[in-house]
Input
Amino acid sequence: MEIITRNYNNIEVVFGNSESIYINATQIAKQFNKQSNDWLRLKDTKAYIEALSRNGNSRFGDLVAVRKGGNDKNAQGTWIHKKLIIAFARWLSPEFAVWCDQQIEEILSQNQPFKSEIPDLDYLRKRTEQIETSTKQLIAFKKSFHEIGIRREEELIVTSNRAVAKETGVDFIELAELKGIPTPEKYFTVTELCQKVMDSDNFSDESKKLVSTKAGDKPTEKAKDFSDFAIYFAIMLI
Output
């Protein structure tokens, strides 16, 4: 068992770290002018240990261990398991109990297995392949959408990116934002913005006719100037 000594108000406190954490109850009780056996004889202590033995699959010998002999005096005495430490420490002093709780947490955190910093190469390889495939699809979608009439670069990129995201799950605009690359706060196609104009009560019926998306109508270059005007006000309304 690894012996760990800590200092509490100039009092040496001895913990043991093996498969679990223990405290040398004999040693610390003396510092408070008490005896650990007096606590073990208490009715509440016995009931608690019995409950732990019944419900926690812990034998008395696992919860309380007596060590004698040996050259290391810190290892001698009655040791109690971490499941009993706080109850025992509270019997000695409430402040000491709080301190013990903090020490147990710290020792447990030091026992955590080392986390390898080596990246998951298999994941990185698959992710790279996914991005490469998505890049090819983005180029293909841009070409196709351009051929069917989407000419404005912003709308072409946004529309193509959305198509790729649906196909492969890779959203290049979202990736750019995650990497800290500045991007506009909102992305809307001209058709979507015009639809917002149609749904708003702040535009006249005459204005809505110019950006109508009903009955198969769509914004055209002929209405480009108005669409820019609509985009400005639509963004203000979003």
